[in-house]
Amino acid sequence: MHTRTLGQDLEVSAVGLGCMGMSQSYGPNPGDRDDMIGVLRYAVEEAGITFFDTAEVYGPYVNEELVGEALAPLRDRVAIATKFGFDFQDGKSVGTNSRPEQIRRAAEGSLQRLGVDVIDLFYQHRVDPDVPIEEVAGTVGELVEAGKVRHFGLSEAAAGTIRRAHATHPVTAVQSEYSLWTRDPEPEVLPTCAELGIGFVPFSPLGKGFLTGTVSTSAEFADGDIRSTIPRFTADNLDANQALVRHVRALAEEKGAQPGQIALAWLLAQQPWIVPIPGTRRRGRIDENTGSTRVALSADEVAVLDALAAQIGVQGERYNEAGMSMVGL
Fold it and tell me: What is the DSSP letter of 24?
């Protein structure tokens, strides 16, 4: 596994691991916690992944505990990113909260649950419209000065917000949804990251599983599966969106690869400072995802995929109305 650099000096594996699905959002959670710990350790020891993504809101809290326990014996080999920015009441998220006192509480909680002395990358999970981003960046800067955080990041923020934050404290990475079927960051966010020297971390780089070619038009999602709430995954839209997957699958067959590997290779080909974080619960998928670093796409192949994605388009929003209201602020 080769490495890439986010920001000025956060060196991580070219493909990371999004850990959310080990605790929520994709149907029934795994019954065997020890198995998930084994998968996380396998990712480091066998697949060479050194970049792991979690958040206090995943669970909430339990995903950080899982990641912390699993990676404790491997701490000197990994970078762990977590996130703040939500308010909690009775163990449930009730909206955004990035007030300074809440950020400091979140940092202390994450440090404890992860069992670490310092958070490698601390993202604001969603922009809080009630708190100036300069205040957020300044508070994280204080945590950096105190040795509790190494790097500051933003998630799903607009280009103007990124610029304002970066002017107060350097932003190391921006995390947003980005894939062949979610191109929202391309017009403004990616050029801003390029200009300012900020890394970019695509989550859901496989379209929440869609770009692996394993989600059929008749797919039925279990209780607790976030895809049951997403317009893009309704039956009609799934049928319309299969056209893109067919082209990805055809290219994969030509190259002796899997469709998901083509989707990840496409992302890796965009910029050397892009590090996708596909999520999974299975060792086989980890091997497949990291294998994408060995799938070389020519400039012509990338251009063809771009043209096809633009021509075919995507039916349905990537979040429901509530989710869409929290992105691009």
Answer: S
The catalytic residue positions are 58
Mean pLDDT confidence for 1-9:
97
CA dist., res. 191 & res. 174, Å (int): 12
- pLDDT of residue 146 exceeding 90, the answer is yes
What is the reported pLDDT for 223?
83
In 3-state terms, what secondary structure has residue 203? strand
pLDDT tens per residue, range 172-220: 999 999 999 999 999 999 999 999 999 999 999 999 999 999 998 888 8
Place of tokens 């839209």: 237
Count CA atoms within 13 Å of residue 116 on its CB side: 31
Q: Which residues contact 190 (CB under 8 A, 6 or more apart)?
A: 200, 270, 271
Q: Is 62 exposed, middle or buried (0-12, 13-18, 19+ CB in 10 A)?
A: middle
